[in-house]
Amino acid sequence: MEHEAHQGHAGHTDHSGHTDHTGHEGHHAGHTGHTDHGDHTDHSGHAGGGASWGMAAKATLHCLTGCAIGEVLGMIIGTALGWGNAPTMVLAIILAFFFGYALTLRGVLAAGLDFRAAFKVALAADTLSIAVMEIVDNGVLLLVPGAMDAHLDAPLFWGALAFAFLVAFVVTTPVNKWLIGRGKGHAVVHQYHH
């Protein structure tokens, strides 16, 4: 039994010949788990400390603004050209990404980065956030009966769109909190803000 317990401590095999260290080894093994837990706690604490809900909500709102501009513009263009739902939605999603990136680019370029570097920052900051937002809000629009066929002057269209954006905001905010807490997403942008 003692031998089996000792096998569990593979990292301490170099002490196996020293009987006077057996007690110390068991004591040390207990602390090893504690140390690992401590490191994990510190990392999680850093992650949580690096991303408040307010910061995540602000990043999501920034993303939502670009998405909303792009989607509404895409739907106006698609409707004006007499396109069906599918091509209109594709255009709206493309423009949502375009305007989402554009808002971030504007801020990062103002901080003095060249376009190529700024574009990389925008891609790193917004891609996952915009993707989650687009999947959620377009999914909601597809689920609301009649929303996709409603005209731009119909209250159903704007009501469904507002509801879709609200749901997307609620779903995307924790994603942004998680990303920022790990130094990704909008955390990449924050270093360029003064």
Structural notes for this entry:
There is one protein chain. The protein has helices spanning 2-7, 22-50, 53-80, 85-110, 115-143, 155-181, 187-190. The model is unreliable at 1-49 (pLDDT under 50). It is built from 7 helices and no strands. Helix 5 packs across helix 6 (155-181). By secondary structure, the chain is mostly helical.
Largest sheet: none
Distance between the termini: 62 Å
Helix content estimate: over 70%
How would you classify the helix and strand content by structural class?
Answer: mainly alpha
Low-confidence stretches: 1-49
Mean pLDDT score, rounded? Answer: 78
Tell me what portion of residues adopts beta-strand conformation. Answer: under 5%
What's the total helix number?
Answer: 7
For this structure, the quaternary state is single chain
What is the alpha-carbon Rg in Å? 26 Å
What is the number of beta strands?
0
Molecular shape:
globular
Question: How are the elements arranged and paired?
Answer:
Blueprint: H1 2-7, H2 22-50, H3 53-80, H4 85-110, H5 115-143, H6 155-181, H7 187-190
Attribute tags:
disordered N terminus, mainly alpha, globular, 194 residues, 7 helices
